[in-house]
Amino acid sequence: MIEALPPGLILILGALAIPLLPKRAQPFAAVVLPALGFFQLLLLAPGESHQLHLFDLELTVVRVDRLSLVFGYIFCLAAFLAAVYALHVKDTLQHVAAMVYVGAAVGAVFAGDLVTLFVYWELTAVSSVFLVWASRTEAAYRSGMRYLVIQVGSGVLLLAGVILHASATGSIAFGQLIGDDGLLATASPGVLLIFLAFGVKSAFPFLHNWLQDAYPNGTVTGTVFLSAFTTKLAIYALARGFPGTEILVPMGVVMTLFPVFYAVIENDLRKVLAYSLNNQLGYMVVGIGIGTALSLNGTVSHAFAHILYKALLFMTMGAVLHRTGTIKATELGGLYKSMPVTTVCCIIAAASISGFPFFSGFVTKSMVIAEVEHLNLTWIFLGLLVASAGVMEHSGIKIPYFAFFGHDSGIRVKEAPWNMLAAMVASAALCLAIGLWPAPLYSLLPFPVGDYEPYTAAHVLTTFRLLVFAILAFAVLVRTGIYPPERAGVNLDFDWSYRKALPALLRRLAAVGGAVRRAVTVAVETLLGRGYRLVYRLHGPSGVFARTWDTGAIAFWAVVGLLGFLVLYFWG
Amino acid sequence: MSDGRKRWLDEPRNVDRLFYGLVALCALLAVSDLGSGRHFFATWEGWPNFHGFFGFVAFWCIVIAGKHLRKLLWRPEDYYDD
C-alpha cells in the first residue's frame, strides 16, 4: 500500500499531521517519517507511474531509475539523521517545515516531467525558508527573505523555461535537455532558462550568495537539513538534464576555487562551511560537465558522501553553537576538552571532506579527478589539486582547529545532548564505512563502476603527500605567525551588489527622481501662475475684457462705418 | 570558566613533538616517492614528491592570498545593518 503513494508524499502528508500530535511526540514523528520514506523506496520498481492528465499536459509524477533512487536513498537517510539530531527541538514549525522540505526534495528527484519538478522545486523553497526564519532574529528574517526571493526566482526561471521548451518541442519530459554537442550556444532559449534555474540552486559563481547568506542564519538543526537537500537536488537536476555540457567543466573548477579564499578569512564557522559546501559542489559540477559514466558516477557518489560529511560538519558546529551560544572563530577554541566526542566526529568529517584515504571523500571525489586525468585535462586537474589543498585548509584544518583546538577560549561546556551525539556518531560511522568499504555505494551508482579501484598504492600515497604537506604548511604558517589571526567582521562578496549597491542606486535614483519631480512641479506651478495672472489681468474685475463697453462708442463707430460705405459707394 | 586541568596538548613541548613528528612523516612520504615507477599523467607529475610540493605551495599561497584579500574585502560586523 505504501508503494502506491508517490515518493515524498508520505513525508509531506505526515508533516501536515505533525501539529496534531502532542508536543513531545512531534520530534519522534519527524524521525519516523524519513524511515518510512526510505522503506517505501526499497519497494519501488524501476519505471514510470502516476501518470496524470492536467489540461493538455501528460504528467509523469513518478519515474524510478538508478539516478533517482540513489538520491532518494541519501535524502531519506540524511533526513533521518538530521531528525535524530533535532529530537530535542520543541518547535512544531521546524519539524513541519523540515519534513515538507525533505518530502519535496524526494518528490523532485522522482519527478518524470518538468512541470512536476517545478511544483516540488518551489515547494522546497517555500518550506525550507522557515528553517531560516525559525531562528526568529531580525538578521534571519531578512536573510530568509533574500533566500526566498532568489529560490522562488529560480522556480520562476524554471517555469518560464519549461513553457518555452514545451511550446518548442511539445514535450515536458524531464530527460537530457542539452544537445549531444554539449554546447549551450546551440540550446534553445527554454533550455537555457532551465539551465539558469538549475544554476541558481546549484550556487553557480555570482548566483551563489544565497547559500552563504541563509545557511549560517538558519537554526542549529535547520541548517543541517538545509545543507543536504537544496543544492544536491540541483546537482541531481543538472546530472539528469545537462550531462556533458562543456561549460560546466571550467565553471565547476571556478566553483571549487573561489570559495576557498573566502573560507580562509571568514570568522563565522557555519559560513566557512557554507563556502566549503559551494566548493564541494564544484567537483560535482565538473563531473557532470565531463559527462562520462565514470565522472557522472563520481558526481553522484560524491553527492552521496558529501551530504553525510557536510551534514556532520554542520552538526558539530551546531552542537558548538547550541552549547556555547557562539560560532565565531574569534570566540572559540579549546573545546576538545569539554566536547571530546563532538571533536572526534568533526575530525572524521574533516578527514572525509578533505579526501583522506579510508574516509568517504577519498573514494568518491577521486572518480571525477581520475576521469580528468584520463582525459588529459591538465588545467582542470591542476585547478582541482589547488582546490583540494584549499579544502584541507578551510574544512580539514580551520573548522576543527579554531573550534576545538587553537587558542583556548576558556569556555567549558557540557558535551552535546545525547540525540545530537547519536546523530553525529552515526554520520561519522557512515563516513568511515563508505571510505573503508566503497563497494555498497558503488553498487547503487547509475552506471556500472567496472574496474575503477580507488585504493591503489599510487593514489593513496599521492593523496597522502598532497594533504600531509598541506598540513605541514599550516603548521609552519602558525608557528611562524604568518597565518592570519581570525578577525570579527564581514567580507564583501557578490551579495554586496544587491544588499548595498542596488539599494544605494535605488536611493540615488529616488533622490534624483524626487529632485526632478520637484523641479517639474515648480515649473508647472510657475507657468500656471503666470497663465492665471494673465487671465486674471484680462478677465478679472479690472481686466480689459471685463470692462463695460460704452454703447455711444458703438453708435459712433457704426456711423463711421456707414459713412465710409457711402463714400465708397459714390466714389465708385 | 576553565576547569584548570592540564591536558597533554597544553604542554608546549608536546606540541613541538607533534610538529616534528609531522615533519618526519613528510620526509618519509617524500622519500617514498623516489623511483616509484608508476604511470604519470604528465611529465611534471613524475617529479619527486610533486604532490607533496604542490600541496605545500598551494596551501601557503591560498592562505597568503586570503590574507591580502581580507584587506580588500573586510568590513565591520554591522556593515549590512542586519
Question: Layout of SSEs?
Answer:
The complex is a heterodimer of chains A (572) and B (82).
Chain A: H1 9-17, H2 26-43, E1 47-54, E2 57-64, H3 66-85, H4 92-109, H5 114-133, H6 138-169, H7 189-201, H8 209-214, H9 222-241, H10 248-265, H11 269-290, H12 293-324, H13 340-354, H14 360-374, H15 378-404, H16 418-436, H17 439-444, H18 457-479, E3 490-491, H19 496-539, H20 551-571
Chain B: H1 12-31, H2 50-73, E1 74-75
Would you mind describing this structure in some detail?
The complex is a heterodimer of chains A (572) and B (82). The longest helix of chain A has 44 residues, at 496-539. The radius of gyration of chain A is 33 Å and the shape is elongated. With 572 residues, chain A is mostly helical. Chain A is built from 20 helices and three strands. With 82 residues, chain B is mainly α. The model of chain B has no long low-confidence stretch (mean pLDDT 86). The interface between A and B is large, with 58 and 49 residues. Strand 3 (490-491) of chain A pairs antiparallel with strand 1 of chain B.
Major beta sheet summary of chain B: none
**Overall average residue pLDDT of chain A:** 94
The helicity of chain B comes to 40-55%
Spatial ordering of strands, largest sheet of chain A: 1-2
As residue ranges, the low-confidence spans of chain A are none
Low-confidence segments of chain B, given as residue ranges, are none
What features would you highlight for this structure?
heterodimer, A: 572 residues, mainly alpha, two-stranded antiparallel ribbon, 20 helices, elongated, B: 82 residues, 2 helices, 54% helix
Short structural summary:
The complex is a heterodimer of chains A (572) and B (82). With 572 residues, chain A is mostly helical.
